[in-house]
Amino acid sequence: MALASPAPSALYKQLKGAEPFFLLAGPNVIESEEHILKMARQIKSVTERLGLQLVFKSSFDKANRTSTKSFRGPGLEEGLKILERVKTTFDLPIVTDVHEAYQSAHGAGVRGRGFKQCEAVGRVADIIQIPAFLCRQTDLLVSAAKTGKIVNIKKGQFCASSVMVNSSEKVRLAGNPNVMVCERGTMFGYNDLIVDPRNLEWLREANCPVVADITHALQQPAGRKLEGGGVASGGLRELIPCIARTCVAVGVDGIFMEVHDNPLRAPVDGPTQWPLRNLEELLEELITIAKVTKGKQKFTIDLTPVGKDF
To answer: What is the pLDDT of residue 110?
Structure first.
């Protein structure tokens, strides 16, 4: 049995009030129970030393893969058992993503039949994450909202920030006020993403916490050719500190990042997972920046004409 989690409203309040920011972090996908427990222990150790609020992240199924040959994870049932083990062992809140409102017994999405994936995930996760490609899917947003858990909606790479106002409102209209929105980059041509810092400000129009995904934002989708044919996603790991510094200076409420103890051997999104070895060093710098920036404060612009006495 899992430890009693804080009520969603209580955790939501903690995250909204977290200073200088909260952290959603962990490996991209569950590779094994042993690996996920190791990562949770070590990331928690870092954040405790730094005084950061941590929500541990990993996925039970990577449904949106470049290839059918790509590693997807252990699946819903086994994956949730492992995430529950993390929760009980380390007393950590959990965030993981969902992909469909309904799931048949064999894993295929069938609207109106099978069981509700969000309902099953909501029994373990404290935050249900909506993937960027699915950020406008009404049935999925409503299903996630009805769990009562916090819903983190990633902005689609193809969307203007204004779209997230509507997506977050779908969650609220389903009776759940606990919603967050997340910037994860915008398509720039076919195989690249850019982070427009203006979106971090415009996303505030959703009237909820704003999270910056500093690792997926540096993906190069289907931008890496494989030996023997085919493609995989590449990435610009060396620019993660650059994007992270920018986001913290602007004043985001939370940072999302994928972390791995051996990124070169990570089965999913290796090029954009941040090395565990460098996690504390980067977070220390971000905390320093966050403590001096006034990014969370609205700047008052004075358009009064300047007179001779100025």
So the answer is: 41
